[in-house]
Amino acid sequence: MADARPPRTKPYADIPGTIVFDAEQARKGYHLNQFCMSLMQAPNRERFKADERAYLDEWPLTEDQKQAVLERDLNRCMQLGGNIYFLAKIGATDGLSFQYMAASMTGMTQEDYAAMMAAGGRSPEGNRFTGERG
Amino acid sequence: MARITAGLAVSHIPAVGAAWDLGKTQEPYWKPVFEGFEWSKRWMAANTPDVIVLVYNDHANAFSLELIPTFALGMAERFEPCDEGWGPRPVPAVHGHPQLAAHLAESLILDEFDLTLANELQVDHGLTVPLTLLFGGPAAWPCRVIPLAVSVVQYPPPTGLRCSKLGAAIRRAVEAYDEDLTVQVWGTGGMSHQLQGPRAGLINTPFDTAFLDRLSTDPEALARTPHIEYLREAGSEGIELVMWHVMRGALSAEAREVRRFYHVPASNTALGHIIFEEPDGGSEGRDTQEGSPR
Predict the structure, then answer these.
(1) First-to-last CA distance in chain A?
(2) Is A112 contained in some domain?
(3) Residue B271 dihedral angles phi and psi, to the nearest 5°
(4) Where are the beta strands (DSSP E) in chain B?
(5) pLDDT tens digit string along B51-102?
(6) What is the ipTM of this complex?
């Protein structure tokens, strides 16, 4: 059935470098996030580490989602419906800190990211609206 | 009768819990964080309530995406710290107050808040890190704690105004409870932080400072802050600040700020903390060695 209404614009769509985990993202990422949740149990972590591909194949994920996990591309995981609190379970399985995971999404090195935080963090100036820096 | 004696808010950064658990509190990075809570710990020791209603959010630990309750009240006698992937925090189990929780559930539902009631609930760093910051590392927590989990992982969380109204309803319920109990309400989470995407690491100190000021002097208008403002100004995870409005809404107009602490950075986050006392809250023995609490 055709829906004549234009797609609803999300008021947060113009925040740069940010994916808001709303109902639409949650729907897309349901199985991806539930896969992450399964890594809270030690036996599952062991099985995942032993053969990541085989473990991922047990879940109804898209091929894109599986590849994003295998490559630890957290930004891609988020685009495909992942949520950072769930994705953090992958980092925990890899023995990585939350700050390491955050840094990996910014394109900065871990050292540069930590230095930015120590200096007071990323300023909101120029980071509120997409394209505001021209 | 039961009464609310004080309210406080505090960030619940997991790395702060890990720093405590691993004995890193004297390291240069963490020392100012823990020193910032010395005054508050003395205040807590002098003002320990019988029960804390502790407003926090779960971070994909007790709740997956299977069920997403907007407000879940912990009804149990006991809540164990959960394994978030690095092993459970080595902190005591949390003891609830099933009688008061049952009264709150009944009162709040009849007051038109559609709660989820949790008879089994493991608690994550969102609840245990605030306890560590205010009580340190006792063998057992010195009072009862009723967890109130607010959904802030999937957007949208409840509005600040709804949270404030829930706080006011908690106050009405506490004041109608027929036992002489002292109760504090804690709001946790925040302040500005973003953990995801190329904008990760966002910190907005002017926003946080204004939020603390207005929480003190203009809480009703502050509770009407639209979600988009938190997302844009305080980062995608800064929206946890809606939970502070539950605490503030539970206090009277006469409550006054007695302590504030703010520190950047703690891991990825701006750490904020504020304490409000009710005029009859009973602050005898309060330590004022440091002079002005601010």
Answers:
(1) 41
(2) no
(3) -90, 125
(4) 3-10, 51-56, 71-74, 78-79, 94-95, 116-118, 144-150, 182-188, 256-266, 269-277
(5) 999 999 999 999 999 999 999 999 999 999 998 877 899 999 999 999 999 9
(6) 0.92
Q: How many domains, chain B?
A: 1
Q: Is A22–B156 a contact, with Cβ atoms under 8 angstroms apart? A: yes
Strand B3-10 versus strand B182-188 pairing type: parallel
Does a structural domain hold residue A130?
A: no
The pLDDT of residue B280 is 77
Q: Kindly determine whether residue A88 and residue B85, on different chains, have CB atoms separated by under 8 Å.
A: yes
Residue of B12, B59, B97, B125 with catalytic role: B125
Q: Which domain holds residue B252?
A: 3-293
Chain B residues in contact with A88 by the CB 8 A cut-off are 59-60, 85
pLDDT above 90 for A9: no
Q: Give me the domain span that covers residue A31.
A: 23-94
CATH number at residue A55: 1.10.700.10
Give a yes or no: residue A88 inside a domain.
yes
Domain count, chain A: 1
Entry field: residues in chain A: 134
- pLDDT value of position A132: 86
Catalytic site includes residue B193: yes
- Residue at A131 is within a domain: no
The pTM of this model reads 0.94
CA neighbor of B182 nearest in space, from B100, B243, B119, B252 = B100
- Here the CATH number for the domain that contains residue B106 is 3.40.830.10
Reported as a single tens digit per residue, the pLDDT across B95-123 is 999 999 999 999 999 999 999 999 999 99
Any CB–CB contact under 8 A between B194 and chain A?
A: yes
Residues of B in contact with A20 (CB under 8 A): 155, 231, 236
- Minimum CA–CA partner of B229 in chain A: A12
